[in-house]
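Sample 1 of the test manifest.
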Amino acid sequence: MTTWVFSEEIDGHASASALELLTKARTFGDTSVFHIGAGSDAAYAELGAHGATKVHHLTIGDRLPGAPAAAALAALAEEHGAELIMFGMGNTDRDVAGRLSARIGRPVLGNAVDVTVDGSVRVTSEILGGTQAVVTEATGSAPALVLVRSKAFPAEPSGEGVPEVTAVSMPDLGHAGSAVITESHVEESEGPDLEVAGVVIAGGRGVGSAEKWVVIEELASQLDAAVGATRAVIDAGWVPSRLQIGQTGKTVKPDVYICAGVSGAMQHLVGMKDSGTIIAINKDAEAPIFAAADLGIVGDLHAVVPKLTEALRNR
Amino acid sequence: MRIAVCVKQIPDPATPYDLDPDTHRVVRPNDQVLDDTDRFGVEVGLQLAEGDDGSVTLFSMSPSGSLQGIRQALAMGADKAVIIDDEALAGSDALTTSRILAAAIEREGFDLVVAGTESTDGSSGVVPQQIAELLDVPSLTFARKVEVTDGGIRVEQQTAGGYDVAEAALPALLAVTSGVVEPRYPTFKGIMQAKKKPIDTLTAEDLGFTADQVGDAGAGQTITSVTAVPAREAGEIVEDDGEAYLKIVALLEQAKVI
């Protein structure tokens, strides 16, 4: 199976999703990467170490990547007979995959937690809060376009060599390709990265308000944990959206996941259900989160969490 | 400015939905609500239209039997709605939905298309980008702040580590994140006025599609199986008696994180 993987360079590195996808893709046979961004040797070395034999690089400059990257990848896929193109679920991945899909008339199979190739491409995704596994097969002509959730395949280097890098020229799309990025801002975040932290403390709507959110942060700092939130909390504007865990947010698999005031909507469960130990604190004994928890405390989080934080502080 | 806002009616997320075991399609209850994420798109559309005496038209692919969700958006202040309702569309994949919506928007004419980032009950999350490509316009997505510039729009786009400022000239597509604005609640007057607002209903054929291009026949994907994922072993649930935090401490010790 001629497989392509999408990669975006961020701060001199290939995207984490690209390395995860390559780890899987190299088991399917010959694997090429479509890489956008600065194009550093360090990023190429990472891609090569994870199984890429060829890298096609598009320098994107200040252009918004979606439209030009999709057009360039469409031309490459046709020229090289790509049968499967894999993307992560990052924002640029989705912009490029969506536009490519419409451009070449192939659907996007999204939210994949597994991909198999056996004549045809099949992806497994989980719905209804991860209680049901759905297998979807791509029908019709190649290539199949697949969006894979993060951590579906742990990235493992294969020790292979340096890939052959080919420069791709910027397609001229006129108006459709004319959007530009004028400024980039990095927002400082404290504590460990949500996606790699060993312990995650998540808060839900039950925390009550932005002012009361400190209860979550204080517990997190005692455990050197990352802070996460449900979509309701993001929508309410209590914390920035990069902290969102769930279907439209991040997928986390920490050793310990503690959530307070989280009801356990399906949207949220798919983003954390594979955590090692799950501890839930919620007032409502009927909350669906308790079905996913190893330990459930039915009670007021504003009583339980401060006591827990205090007990940890005194150890 | 002619603003097209894409909206979707979904089963109320508070009441879990089921899959039809034979067709693997979502069994849609009669009562459907406006997808919560779309309220943000409607609000952005209304605010941009209010700024320059523009119009807001809603577009939705939806069985017209239940228009509760569309009425909600009209009651917020949208001027009219275009519904594409056709039995032939049942089983359509996201790309077909995008083709239908793009065709309806093109037919009506537009300067700016506004959509939510992703529907609550869907999975692919690429419909806005597909629509933009089909309409051959730039797409500004994952927008958390929007402003109008001379002849275009400027947004703050959420990125993994912060945000970018991006700009495009019109016509363009804008996909907004939840929280971008505070959606207004319909007023009583708005709810009454919504009952009189025009709702055009179109079929796939009206938009130039044949039966084999849409629905199950036109889908480039098929569900081959749906199976239950083994449930996690039931945990211990305790009522807080003031000392329940000690159980958490014990479990954290057991997990060797303290």
